[in-house]
Write a structure and sequence with these properties.
Structural class: alpha+beta
Distance between the termini: 60 Å
Strand order of the largest sheet: 1-2-6-3
Number of domains: 2
Largest sheet: 4 strands, antiparallel
Amino acid sequence: MKLTSQMIKERAAELGIDCIAIGNIERFAGAPKLMAPQSIFPEARSVIAVAMRIPRGTYRGIEEGTHWHNYTFYSYNKLNTLFRPHLSYELCCFIEDHGYEAVPHFPAVPEGNGTTREPVAEGKLPPDVVCSVRVIAAGCGIGEIGYSKVFLTKKFGPRVRLGLIFTDAELEPDPILDTGDICLHCGACVRECPGNAVPPVKNKDERLYVDFNGEKQIWYADVRMGRCTLSHHGLNNECSPFLKKEFPNMALEVRNTEMTEEEAYIMTYTMADGKWGRKPGAQVMNYYDYIKKHTGYYAICGARGCIRACMNALEKTKRIENLFHNPFYYKKSWLLPHEPTEVPEGVNPYREAYLDEKYPGIRDGEYVKAKK
C-alpha cells in the first residue's frame, strides 16, 4: 500500500500528537549545509514537522513566583522525554512499516550555522549538523515563526514543542503560512521581555528573512540571543529571585549587554555548576544545582515576553483555537528591581518583600478581590 500524507496524519492523531504538517524537500534546497535536512539524510524526499502542546498551567508557578521548576520539568524535560522516544518513535516505526526510512531530528542548541570541529574525513561535513527546527517547521506549514523567533501554531500559539522527521517517502506537502497569519506583530514580546532581547517591531533593518526556494519568504526579528540566554537561564536579576540572596550587589545590565549567545551559555552554565565561592564546599545558587541534576536544563525567565505575553495577546484576540474560561493575567506581571538589594537573612526578596510593597495583600487574595 502506498504511504500517503493522510495516512501519516491519521496515525499521528491516534498517537496523540497535537499538530503535524509536511513539506517537500525542494523547499529546503537553499539551506546552509550545516543546517540542511539533506545533509543528514541525502535521500530525503519529505520533511514531517510535529508539535506537542505545552500546558498553559506550567507557566503559572513562575507567573505567581512560587514554583519555578514545574516549567522546566514539564515544559522542557518531561515533555521532550514523552515526545522523542515514544510518540516520534511510534510514528517513525509506522513509516518504516510501509517500507520507507524515517530519520527523527529534534531540537538542539544552538540552532545555528557554524562549527569549530573538523570533518571526520576529507570531503565530508563536520559532525555537528543541526537543523533549525523552527525554520524547517515553518517550511512544512505547521505554523509560523513569530516576531520574537518563538514558533506559533494556529491551535496553541507559542505553547508548543517541535520535532522533525525526514523520510524518503514522497508525500503531499502542506502550504506554507504567510508571516502574520498568526503573529499580531503587536509588540507584546518587545515590551515584556525582561532582557530587552527583541528589537522594536517597526525596525525593518533588524529582521531576518528565510526563502523557501522561491515558494515563499518569511521573516522574523533579529533577536539579541545573548540577552535572551542570560535572562532565560537566570542571570537577569529582574526576572530571577535566586540571585538576590547570594549576590545582593550584583546588577548585570542584561538589557544593554552585547554578549553573544555562546558567551551567555558559558556564563550561565558555569554559574549553575555551583562551584563558585570562597567558602569550603559552598554551593552557589542551590536551586540551579538542584534543577540541573534532575534535568540538565533550567528556565528561569519563563519566557515572560516571547511566550506568556504573546499567548495572552493571541488569546485575547482569539487568533488561536485553544482558549480558556479565565485570562492568564489577573494582575500585573512582576519584575524585581534591577538595583542591588540588601536582603535580610532568610527572606525571599520576591514573595516577602517586593510583592508586598507593590501589591499589598496579594498573598491573601485582597489585591485580586479589589481588582474584581
